[in-house]
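From the methods appendix. Each design record in this collection lists the tokenized structure first, followed by the designed amino acid sequence. Records were kept in a plain field format so they could be parsed without special tools. The example shown here is representative of the layout used throughout.

RECORD:
FOLD TOKENS (660 positions):
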């Protein structure tokens, strides 16, 4: 027997498997992770055969999706076997959504070691291992095999994760450790959430035949059977959900954030704005088979902050268990996976790592208290930091090993290239008015002339989104940011990665550094100002004295970002503000949420904006959320993240405070 050698000091409670004859055993639950005799055969018998998945995979139409949910991811065996059969059987354009909950995930090296047990599954295992990370709690989206499989790994307690889930599950794998060893996974609260997420015809199967499990699921609408088990297990359970849905829906606790359903899938979507929010949204939609038209006021993509010459991709950390903290970490990891997919040779980005200097009490507190994880953040002493950075620092730093330098314009053009003929962009075209007529959004210019019409419209027009009447309630502000471009010196060429200190400095590229950035709220001018150059240099000089002088300035660029008061993007369906005022005008009285109707959205209208200075971190996951909403799909984020991003949140907060 041996125990994995590497110990992580982390907030994530990783599994600590003991290895017995090459197989993982959980000392915490005193149970094996999979059958030592033939784990693959047991998975096929218990989960695929008794959920009728061999037949259901084959019957999936060319553009149909199927949703599986698993209550214990463990080593990933059930996932690997399911994906193998899905790829062999399902038609080419269909997608498998696989939700898996795990409170004590395997570390990457332990996962790879467990997978060595199954040589026949190595092609699927290698695809998972290439992307896998489990460094932060919450929902994490992994896209495998060109999007044919979407794994949503939900890291946390089982009942909590189920409450945060929004999907119509087709088949359940109930695969936690045995009820006697892990009763928390088999309690009534878990069963109620399973029923909430099921529909008529949803199936489940599980290796256990425990009476409490049979009675709990039967009471909630499942017809339960007890067929023969596999191997030395005499019996197991399987069942089908046959009840009419009478319980609370996913949005019963906050009905004002209910999602609309598109009655008919539109053949195309129109987007206003060709920055990173607009183009990443277009990419997410094109990959689902949509045609996309983009209307852009500028003469090229990224006319505002998305067009900066270079930028950095670093995580935003939070010491609190919060929706925005979950979102930004999930979005950061997902953005890195998207960049890898777009450009595996790293021609439009470089994964250099990055460092954050202790420039504020918040950063110093994070360095003292944030859990260390080799995939996310580590504190380095000054000597080690200086060696890795290439410039001398005299204090400990926060090091982000996966952070990257990005070339925004190149990324935008790579996205455009990837979409091919499915994307059409119309430049130098400004939209001044929106009208809704005959189930179409009419886009008009300043003279009232029709520019374009569309049944489904997405506004990704940064702070200018608030100009349209439907979005006057959005708390969007422009925030000017000016970059300074500096000629490299012999000393500055030693910088190996992005360094942040309130401002930031990027390594040289083509003998030039990018230094940024100013932050001027409610200023949307794009003139380059000497005063802001001097301020950028002064901020840098505090940490790296004498590294640059004003004589090394070679230019600059100013643009306006879109920011929100809570520093979280605005992503989702457009609320019908008048109906919100009518339906929720007495929210301040504290009536229970169940007394209110579902929120009313404007038909076919969505928004994706407010990404501030972190657009290349936050836009890709936001785009997936928007595309899933438009396509009536299972969602890639938790409910609390969806609520935190919802465009109606400012209206609701105002109404709760009795301010109109």
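DESIGN:
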């Amino acid at each position: 027997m041996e125990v994995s050698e590497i110990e992580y000091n982390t907030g994530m409670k990783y599994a600590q498997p003991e290895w017995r004859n090459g197989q993982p055993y959980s000392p915490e639950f005193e149970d094996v992770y999979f059958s030592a005799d033939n784990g693959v055969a047991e998975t096929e018998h218990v989960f695929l055969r008794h959920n009728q998945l061999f037949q259901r995979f084959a019957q999936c139409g060319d553009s149909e999706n199927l949703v599986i949910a698993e209550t214990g991811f463990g080593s990933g065996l059930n996932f690997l076997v399911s994906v193998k059969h899905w790829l062999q059987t399902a038609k080419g354009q269909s997608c498998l959504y696989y939700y898996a909950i795990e409170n004590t995930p395997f570390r990457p090296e332990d996962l790879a070691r467990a997978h060595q047990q199954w040589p026949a599954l190595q092609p699927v295992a290698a695809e998972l291992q290439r992307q896998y990370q489990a460094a932060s709690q919450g929902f994490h989206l992994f896209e495998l095999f060109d999007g044919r499989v979407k794994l949503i790994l939900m890291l946390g307690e089982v009942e909590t994760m189920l409450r945060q889930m929004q999907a119509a599950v087709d088949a359940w794998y109930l695969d936690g450790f045995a009820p006697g060893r892990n009763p928390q996974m088999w309690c009534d609260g878990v069963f109620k959430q399973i029923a909430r997420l099921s529909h008529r015809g949803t199936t489940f199967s599980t290796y256990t035949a425990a009476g409490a499990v049979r009675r709990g699921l039967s009471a909630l609408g499942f017809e339960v059977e007890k067929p023969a088990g596999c191997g030395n297990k005499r019996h197991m359970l399987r069942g089908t959900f046959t009840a009419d849905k009478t319980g609370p829906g996913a949005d019963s606790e906050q009905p004002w954030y209910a999602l609309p359903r598109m009655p008919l899938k539109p053949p195309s979507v129109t987007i206003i704005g060709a920055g990173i929010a607009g183009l990443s949204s277009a990419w997410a939609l094109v990959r689902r088979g949509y045609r996309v038209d983009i209307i852009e006021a500028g003469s090229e993509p990224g006319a505002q902050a998305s067009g900066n010459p270079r930028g950095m991709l670093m995580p935003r950390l939070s010491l609190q268990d919060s929706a925005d903290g979950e979102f930004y970490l999930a979005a950061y990891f997902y953005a890195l996976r998207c960049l890898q997919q777009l450009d595996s040779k790293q021609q439009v980005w470089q994964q250099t790592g990055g460092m954050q200097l202790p420039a504020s009490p918040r950063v110093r507190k994070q360095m003292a208290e944030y859990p260390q994880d080799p995939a996310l953040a580590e504190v380095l002493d000054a000597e080690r930091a200086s060696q890795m950075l290439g410039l001398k620092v005299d204090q400990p730093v926060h090091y982000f090993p996966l952070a990257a330098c990005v070339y925004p314009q190149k990324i935008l053009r790579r996205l455009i290239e990837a979409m091919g003929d499915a994307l059409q962009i119309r430049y130098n075209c400004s939209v001044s008015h929106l009208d809704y007529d005959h189930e179409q959004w009419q886009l008009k210019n300043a003279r009232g002339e029709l520019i374009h019409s569309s049944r489904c419209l997405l506004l990704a027009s940064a702070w200018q989104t608030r100009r349209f009447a439907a979005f006057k309630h959005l708390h969007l502000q422009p925030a000017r940011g000016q970059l300074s471009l500096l000629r490299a010196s012999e000393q500055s060429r030693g910088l190996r990665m992005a360094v942040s200190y309130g401002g930031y400095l990027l390594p040289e590229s083509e003998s030039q550094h990018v230094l940024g950035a100013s932050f001027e709220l409610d200023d949307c001018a794009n003139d380059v100002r000497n005063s802001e150059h001097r301020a950028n240099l002064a901020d840098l000089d505090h940490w790296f004295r004498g590294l640059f002088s004003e004589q090394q300035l070679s230019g600059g660029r100013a643009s306006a970002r879109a920011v929100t008061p809570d520093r979280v993007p605005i992503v989702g369906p457009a609320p019908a503000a008048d109906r919100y005022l009518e339906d929720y005008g007495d929210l301040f009285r504290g009536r229970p949420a169940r007394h209110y109707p579902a929120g009313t959205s404007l038909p076919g209208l969505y928004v994706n904006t407010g990404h501030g200075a972190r657009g290349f971190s936050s836009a890709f996951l936001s785009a997936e959320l928007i595309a899933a909403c438009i396509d009536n799909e299972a969602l890639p984020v938790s409910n609390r993240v969806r609520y935190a991003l919802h465009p109606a949140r400012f209206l609701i907060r105002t109404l709760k405070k009795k301010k109109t």
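APPENDIX NOTE: The radius of gyration is 26 Å.
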